[in-house]
Amino acid sequence: MLKKVPKATLKSLMKKKANIRIGTAADAMVELNVLLFLHSLAEEARTKAFEEKSATIKAHHVKAVSKKLLKQARG
Amino acid sequence: MDSVDEDVSARVLLQSVIHTESSRSPITRSASQAQFQSPGSRVRRSIRLRRSDVGALTPQEALKQSIKNKLRESTSRFSLPVPPSKRRTISEGVRKINTPAPATASLLYDDDITPRYLLRGILQTEPETSLLVQDRPVKKEPELPYTNSSLHSNRPSTGLSDLDLPDMTTTVNLSNTVKGLSRKRPRRSLNITAFNRQLEHEDGEGEGGSATEKYLSSLSSASPSSITFSLKTPFVDVQTEKRGFQRKVTNRKKICLEEFDKALQNRQAAMGGDPELSVREDQQGLSETVRSEGFTSGLSDLTAPDITHDIITSNTALYSLPVDTATTFTITTQDKDTITGTQIQREMGGMKDEDEKDMEEVGEQNEDKMELDNKDGEDLAGDAGQREDSVRQKESKSQTEEVEAVADSQTEEEDEVAESQTEEDEVAESQTEEDEVAESQTEEDEVAESQTEEDEVAESQTEEDEVAESQTAEGEVAESQTEEDEVAESQTAEDEVAESQTAEDEVAESQTAEDEVAESQTAEDEVAESQTEEDEVAESQTEEDEVAESQTEEDEVAESQTEEGEVAESQTAEGEVAESQTAEGEVAESQTEEGEVAESQTEEDEVAESQTADDVADEGGQVVEEGQEKRLTSQSLTHNAMHISRRAYCSEGGGKVAGVIEGGRGYKSMGAALHPTETGESGWAGRRSEGDTAGEWHSGPEVGASESAHTRTVTLGSVPPSLLPQEDEQELEGLSRTGTSRGNEEMENSMPPLEMTFEPENNAPHSSNSSLHPITAQSPAEHEEDWDDVEEGDGIRSEELSMKTPAFVREKRNALPIDPLATPTVLKDLQPSVLSGAAAAVKPKAVRGKRTGSAKKDPGLSKSYIMSVFKHFAKTKVSTDVYPVLKEIMERYFDRLADDLETFAAHAKRKTIEVEDVELLMRRQGFLTDSMPVNVLIEKYLPMESRKLLIPVATSGNYVIPKPRRK
Q1: pTM over 0.80
Q2: Are A38 and B879 an interchain contact pair (Cβ–Cβ within 8 Å)?
Q3: Do A42 and B870 touch (CB under 8 A)?
Q4: Is B10 an 8 Å CB contact of chain A?
Q5: What is the predicted ipTM?
Q6: Which strand (E) or helix (H) includes residue B913?
Q7: Core vs surface per residue B648-682: b (16+ CB within 10 A) or e
Q8: What is one GO cellular-component annotation here (chain B) (predicted)?
Q9: Which of B888, B912, B926 is facing A72, going by the closest CB pair?
Q10: Tens digits of per-residue pLDDT, B399-446?
């Protein structure tokens, strides 16, 4: 079961990052976006870890995948 | 020596001398066995007698030795036939000569042994004699009577060497002699090692006796060892023996006297445990001796020539026995001393043992080298064990010597350590017993007893310290250790104070809780202090000059202050500290009011902060538990404690050691003023301080500072009594304060920087005390007097601070602080204290706000959320080290996300980021495709609450929530 998103934190984060107001539903969408991003990140990291025959996802696996995903997440 | 030198090269001569010496030592031992009655006198006599006897013995011995030498020369070991015959004849003649006089039995044995033993003896003696040949012939005549004595000694030894006898196969007596010889042989061969071996044998003998009684055992052991030595002695030339004896005797004797005294003291201090240790040591020595014996026996068994050598050596040893006996006595006495020293060292712990081992190893190596030169391969094996023993003995001797050398400083340090230990023990006791003052006093008495025990521990520690000192800067190490011990003690003292306060306070539970907090804080402070102290110690050590030390100390104080300031901040953040803050504020104000030099003030402020932090912790606990009045009293108590501690710190600032001393003095003054038990404690502290002073000696100014601290403490002591009459609770508090003050003093002693910091704090507590007094509505005059006293104490403290600081700074501080502190401080302190309290309160709030702000500032999602989500999606094990990477990625991701969304919203000419923008972004990111509508993703990933916001749901009444997007 996914943990409940700390909406307050997320909202404050977005408010801080963006200089524009954020719509109410946009928060949920941002949350969805974050979840999707984390999902893709986890998937990629897992595949990377499996490629390296490691049963556990380690920091270097995530780091290796992060560049590609961040590039992919570019709007 | 001369003769030996002539005969052989320097090395050979030395080796021969050593061998002879070792042999002599056994002989002396045998004589000592006969003489048993007076060990000490025997020792001295033995030396003299040995020397005198040596001349007399020399002729006989010389003859024997010459024969042996000839044999050896002909066929060091292997050429049995020719030399043995000659030697047999000669040796028989010698034996006959010897036998008639004192020992018929020996003659009989000799006769029995003659054929085989003579050959063996010849073989054995040959190598040894070779070096000593010239001298030996001359000495032969006198030796005969001695041989008789040696024979007597051999008889007793035989009992010990029964095991060896069977190997010898001849007569039991002979076998006994052989055994002694065998033991002696390796020793002899090892010359240098022989001394050590003799010592070892003595130790072994002592071990046997030690099982029953240490001293008795040592004496008894000495006697058997002497026998063995006597056997050995004959081999060695008189001159060589003299040389060996002189060297060994001198070293050993010196060591023995000092070591004996030390050992006796140590043993007296810790009668219970020490004997056991000695027994153990003795056992060890015995085991060693047994090993050596086994080696020797094995050698004898393996090779007949060796046995003959042994026999011959034993015979010669018998001849030389009388002279050797004296030496053996000395050796035995020395061995005893060494044993005691070794025991103490062993008691001390692994540290010394390690050092000793190192020393022993070195000695062993040297000995091994010598032995190799002199001895044959066969002897080497037996010698190895003996060498080890001897090495150990040597090491113990060296250690004992070192101990003696360091003894004065070490004893002082040890006393300090013991005091600190006793203090700690006292603290524990006081904690339990402190509930009742009377009990605490009685406990203090108990502590005195415990101190005696602790003294033992201290001795062991001191021994360790000595070792460390001998290796490096022994004094510095000891000081650092003592300081560390003091810190530990101070911590314990602080804990005790907290405990005592709690016990004293009726509200045990709340107080205990508070105390715990205070203790934790104190523990933290102590850690910082200990670090600072260590740094200070190192600095002080490096900078021998007092000025340099004072400067370094000041620097250290600044550091410690900074650390303390941090602690204080944390404490204030915790919120316990309204009172402590007020106290700090008061301190700062009082300091400012006092008009001390800006520098001194700044330093004091820092100190005050640190002190206040500490005070706050203690005060906070106390205040919470106690009522407001109780709080006031507790504050006053804490203040008193702080004052004391400050005084101690001040003294420490001058010199850490001095600080310790001052602390002790402060304890004394406090105890005198408040309670007899406390006085007793103070006496202890004073003793400790004295010990510290003696050990540290670093700087006169420090001592002066400590003295001033003492005076301050005295004034403080006067203050607390006035408080006591005011209220019963106050009295209790005063007691607790005294305890606290003790603890503070201890803390101060342990940590000079803290002490420095405490000094300003002490000022604050004084002010708080004064404020408390008015609150209690006590006579203002008394309060003022108290305050004046406090102020004086502050002035002294300031002086101490000045001592810490550079000379010019110090002068300014001294001049300024005293005046301002003396009169104005009382009234001023009260006002400033209040102000400071307010300021302190404000400060913590600000800190809290900052913290909260910082917490808010912390960017990103919570770790638990990110990790949980990531783990959920990963569906595999995720190492914890992923989080930092994830955090960074998420941060970057959010930055880009915000930028993109902002851009999209701007592009849409909106000022609000809407769902469409995010949807567009997701589509660009690839999350949304034609085959993957948004609603599916929402339903898949988002919880129901979020879904409700995004997906319109028709409810009863034809309401759609939320309103469908207008497109």
Answers
A1: no
A2: no
A3: yes
A4: no
A5: 0.93
A6: strand B912-913
A7: bbbbbbbbbbbbbbbbbbbbbbbbbbbbebbbbbb
A8: kinetochore
A9: B926
A10: 444 444 444 444 444 444 445 444 444 444 444 444 444 444 444 444
